[in-house]
Amino acid sequence: MSTHSPPVVLVFAGSDPTGGAGVQADIEAIVSMGCHAAPVITAVTAQDTVGVKQFESVETELVIAQARAVLEDMPVAAAKTGMLGNKTTLSAVASILDDYPRIPLVVDPVQAAGIGNPLAEDSLDDTMRTVLLPRATLATPNTLEARNLAPDADTPAACAQALMSLGCEYVLITGTHDVTSNVINRLYGHMRLLETFECERLEHNYHGSGCTVAAACAAGLAHGLDTVSAVAKALDYTWQSLKQGYRPGMGQFLPDRLYWARKNNRFHDD
Ligand code: PLP
Fold first, then answer.
1. Of 41, 68, 181, 260, which one's alpha carbon is 20 to 30 angstroms from that of 242?
2. Is the Cβ atom of 208 under 6 angstroms away from ligand 1?
3. Which residues, in sequence order, are CB contacts of 257 under 8 Å at separation 6+?
């Protein structure tokens, strides 16, 4: 590998034609954080900034072939999963990643779009719990996803404990969906609350914020940061992207993940 080659982040994600969420979000976040994104497409969605109209999962064999091609060619420094589409693909992805136990893994347990439309053919909760979360370095559920994954837990802390008991090392529960004045994101690890990150709640609804956080966390881990630092940097980057977000369509705002590059773009004169 040449010395200037950026760390490679392998992502498993669905395609979102709005460019706001999914693999498009992952690539922008990973590249912004100074890594190289290697995207494995798990599903193709038809959606706009208002909602998901349709999606189709990619054949599991083709998902496996994409991942093997990258893993056998490049030194993958971290991996991230987003939309997986169905249980068969989820299990196949977990089994590939089990062959590479040293690659840190961020699991964004997405099963529905922020707006509520499903992004999985069936409930993935059980399979997520049994095969993928035990392999995860970091899971990034929002409070609703955490509750679904740990239905017996009655608080975010209890949800995090339940997920860590499965073998997931760190759990970041994001608080965007809560009715608090500021957004409170909590990072758990070593069976306790490690850090609370509070940020100003922005006024709009955003599409792709969960993908952005998880992908940026994976990039931090790929750079060799410890999990607390990777999460802190990812949350800060995501908040800046949301703050400078824009509304290109008729629904949700999209994060401007390239906010940092706008002044230096190649068509800008000054
Ligand atoms: N992956 C895909 C392909 C999506 O379309 C979405 C949301 O629509 C997500 C993931 C999750 O998006 P968010 O970051 O808004 O939770």
1. 41
2. yes
3. 25, 28, 29, 32, 212, 241
Task: Please name the amino acid found at residue 24.
Answer: Q
Tell me how crowded residue 206 is: count the other CB atoms within 10 A of its CB.
22
CA–CA separation, 142 vs 178, rounded Å?
Answer: 9
Compute how many other C-beta atoms are within 10 angstroms of the C-beta atom of residue 75: 10
Length of the chain: 270
Map residue 178 onto helix, strand or coil: coil
Q: Which residue has the tokens 């990619």?
A: 58
The predicted structure's pLDDT at residue 40: 99
Instruction: List domains and CATH numbers for the chain.
Output: 8-134+196-246 (3.40.1190.20)
**Cα–Cα distance, 221 to 75 (Å, whole number):** 14
Tokens for 67?
Answer: 């991942």
SS3 state at 212: helix
Residues 6+ apart with CB under 8 A from 217: 80, 106, 138, 140, 172, 227, 230, 231, 234
Are 258 and 49 in contact, with CB atoms under 8 Å apart?
no
Residue with tokens 């899971």: 139
Mean pLDDT of each 10-residue bin along the chain, 270 residues long: 84 98 98 98 98 98 98 98 98 98 98 90 96 98 96 96 98 92 97 97 96 98 98 98 98 97 76
Ligand 1 mutation pick, 28, 211, 213, 253, max ligand atoms within 8 A of CB: 211
Tell if the pTM clears 0.85, that is, is over it.
Answer: yes
Angle at 140 between CA 138 and CA 144, to 5 degrees: 145
> What single letter denotes the amino acid at residue 83?
M
Q: Three-class SS of residue 116?
A: coil
